[in-house]
Amino acid sequence: MGKDLNIPDLKTIFAKQMESTFFPVSLDNMGAQFSFHLENTDKHSYSTGKTGRLLTNRHNHPGGAYGYRLEVGGKVFVYCTDLEHGECLNEKVIEFAKEADLLIYEAQYTPEELPKFRGWGHSSWEQAIEVAKLAGVKKLYLTNHDPEHNDEFLQKEERKCQERFQNCYFAREGDENLI
Ligand SMILES: [Zn+2]
Predict the structure, then answer these.
(1) What pLDDT does residue 32 have?
(2) Is CATH 3.40.50.720 what the domain over 44-170 is classified as, yes or no?
(3) What is the pLDDT of residues 113-145, one digit of tens each?
(4) What is the 141 CA–ligand 1 centroid distance (Å)?
(5) I need a surface site. Which of 28, 94, 115, 176 has the fewest CB within 10 A?
(6) Integer Cα distance of 26 and 7 in angstroms
(7) Distance from residue 80's CA to the centre of ligand 1 (Å)
(8) Ligand 1 centre and the CA of 61: distance in Å?
(9) Nearest Cα to Cα of residue 101 among 83, 84, 79
(10) Residue-range domain boundaries for the chain
């Protein structure tokens, strides 16, 4: 989460949305150990201990959004959603995804739909595949699907994607162990 939002305390934001009114498990009961960093424009790299680092990249999206690149144990995992390119693909995004073992990327729109949604802050699956190819990504997972697209439609689009990038899948509920 970025500094565009006027928030004093990041932990409160996460805790708030996990209150019992909205979610059955509170933040304190989560199994992981959390440390909260509010992204700022001066710092884009965080150490994750001896073995890895976490990089961030600011996205073009209304209200702000960030991509995350986790390098740990010799593997690279990149997460990019809520991201709109301009007329051309954003070079910074390609660089950020370089050689990722797994890229989770948003594909809210089809290539045909994208021009109708300029300024909404999202990408097409075609752009996702272009980024993955140019960045030399090994495996591509597409997510952030438009709520207007049903399962049948998405399965058809997934097959189109796999014709262009073999190791490409649409994310499904329950998916795990992706690398
Ligand atoms: Zn969005």
Answers:
(1) 83
(2) no
(3) 999 999 999 999 999 999 999 999 999 999 999
(4) 17
(5) 176
(6) 20
(7) 11
(8) 7
(9) 79
(10) 1-38, 44-170
